[in-house]
């Protein structure tokens, strides 16, 4: 039977004492005297009883393990990509991955009266490259010529510095290596250039805005995305009228692989394009992961839109979520990156205009 008597020592800044029988131990600015006795009922009745409802009713906040895994994985990606540019000498007036801006850009009014038309309806889809040229390039890069490729082939500075080694392109597009963060950025920037070039009427109006993987990675890592300089340049200082875009796509890399999310600003729908949707193993876990990731990226997206633009078309509440089945074939985690690029390229907001199969992917 333990009887505890609590005394407060106001004038004492030294260590407090725990008295257990005749032993004394130090601990802080209060003195606790603890008597260990096998007492009688009289002794038990004399012991004071303290009712503290604050302590009794306090509930420990439960941690969400799914959110913890998402945040940890995103932070690893952030640290890895940042380390790629740490050793290089930074060029003046060039934005690098993760650069922060203390101030937000001046707000613009969302003045567009309507949205741009879908390229599938307007007939402004980019033309595929000549098959003969593709075959020649595929044959050349597939040879044992890594000595020719082991150098910096790609460098692009908007919205932030991107450097990619050609060996990475060979290994990931023609080999079995999974798609990494920077090669995904390279492909999506080229997609954007093709979209702009294909516009017959106005290169200032685009139906879709494909955000780079930086956006979702920083958002899932818990960073203030609106203060990321590259995000400000892509959204607030875009070369086209971003307020006319009906859809926003963002690729996302999670612990189980790549996926893409699409926001439809007219229907207020979020479409989860998961290349592993036909994989029965781990389906419940993937669904829970996507739901948490969508919530975080959705909050980050509208935080940026509301900070960068005044009177955006719609609010962030009451959005529906859909998970269309974009393929019936089972893909692996390492194949999910190329599947994600295919989905962003050929999903028209309702369906896949080019089937996502292993044959089409190759």
Describe this structure in words.
This is Ubiquitin-like protease family profile domain-containing protein. It comes from Aegilops tauschii subsp. strangulata. The chain has 362 residues and is an alpha/beta fold. It has a single domain (75-82, 95-360), classed as Adenoviral Proteinase, Chain A (Adenoviral Proteinase, Chain, 3-Layer(aba) Sandwich). The protein is built from 13 helices and 13 strands. The protein has helices at residues 41-46, 53-56, 65-86, 119-122, 131-141, 146-149, 166-174, 181-198, 213-220, 229-235, 283-308, 336-346, 358-361, and strands spanning 2-8, 17-20, 23-26, 30-36, 108-109, 152-156, 162-165, 208-210, 247-254, 257-264, 269-273, 309-310, 320-322. The strands form four sheets. The protein has a five-stranded mixed β-sheet, sandwiched between helices. A four-stranded mixed β-sheet has the order 1-4-2-3, with no helix packed on it. Helix 3 packs across helix 9. The longest helix is centred in the C-terminal third of the chain and has 26 residues, at 283-308. The radius of gyration is 29 Å and the shape is globular. The protein starts with a strand and ends with a helix.
